[in-house]
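[09:14] KT: can someone run the structure on this one? pasting the chain below
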Amino acid sequence: MHNLKLILEREYLARVRNKTFIVMTFLSPLILVGMIFLVAYLSMLNNNETHTMAIKDDSGLFAHDFEDSDDFKFVDLTDMSLEEAKQSSSENEYYGLLYIPNLENNRELAKSIKFFSKESPSLSNLQHIERTITEKLTNRELVSNGVDLSKIESSETKVDIQIQNFAGKRTSKMSNYIKMFFGGAAGYLLMMFIIIYGNMVMRSVIEEKTNRIIEIIVSSVKPIQLMLGKILGTSLAGITQFAIWVVLGGILLVSASYFTGMDLTAAPSQAQAGIDQMSNSEMQQLLLDVSNLPILTLVIFFVIYFLGGYFLYSAIYAAIGAAVDSETDTQQFMFPIILPLMLGIYVGFFSVIENPHGTVSTIFSMIPLTSPIVMLMRIPFGVPWYELAISIAILILTNVGVLWLAAKIYRVGILMYGKKPTYKELYKWLKY
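[09:31] RB: done, structure tokens below
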């Protein structure tokens, strides 16, 4: 145990004193905050851009339907011929020219409308134009068939279904997305931590192996103690770096927002429009859904699955580092490691949100290679205690087994040089 503590301290201090580690610890928040402000600035420029669109409406039906707004300014070119309107739109570099011919039949008119532009217009702008025209032509068709539009409008009834569980507790329609956001953020954060700091463990093993330092160290330390010390020391260094990122990034965001005057909390225009349309009761229900999330449970099990998932994958990364002589030789082993992580994210975002208690979600929350991600995404939806107990038990047993197997590969691999190992040779090492 004393040797393990010494190795842990050595690995931790070696990481935090490394110049690259120090530079990236303080440079990464600057880069991240800079990117956030760049995206916010570009989004602000995009939202402030006003497109000028020309309209040639020979039918005369849409004279009052296309009005100037923050996004569009309309120019009427109905008095010109079609060719003159196209030429004028091109010379003035308008966003495009909307041509509506003069046809009595609504169905023929709908098929004859054209949009001319130098570049392809955005899909959202085209859909906005199509909705405006569709609504107008539909009303025109109804009137021609003797339908009173005022009666239709007065007969429209908005249905607002209230969602409650059997105990009478209310939730909003957005509750599933809120739960998916918190669970998805936890799962994605865990995956990124495993990839970043698992690779750091692997590179540390390769570095000591190629420098032949490992031959001196193993003369007085058991290989499994050395491997555990590297995993623990690297993970503590990673947690330290992540904590500095959070604190420094928060300070930089607040300071930069204050000095630049940019409001990073402002939602995009479409999202803001949706928020503005929400009633006070809906907004209160949304906030209530957030407050009702099992935050404490999510934090506790995030720590459990974080440790379980990180140690599981770090042991595999350490075994790979011991088996190869350089980082280029690790490529043949990396895909089987990344695959279950990506599969966990895929199952989480495409299966959990649709059916968090379904067969697929439940099975993948039990498989130890995917359970740290999938189960974290399921927890906000409510998971029975026995499923959590089974999943954690399987994860712990798998950790013990993988650590034991990785230690056997590590023991042989750290002293092997000059040959690329195959899966067959790794299997032989497990028998030594």
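[09:33] KT: thanks! The chain is about 70% helix and 5% strand.
[09:34] RB: yep, looked fine to me
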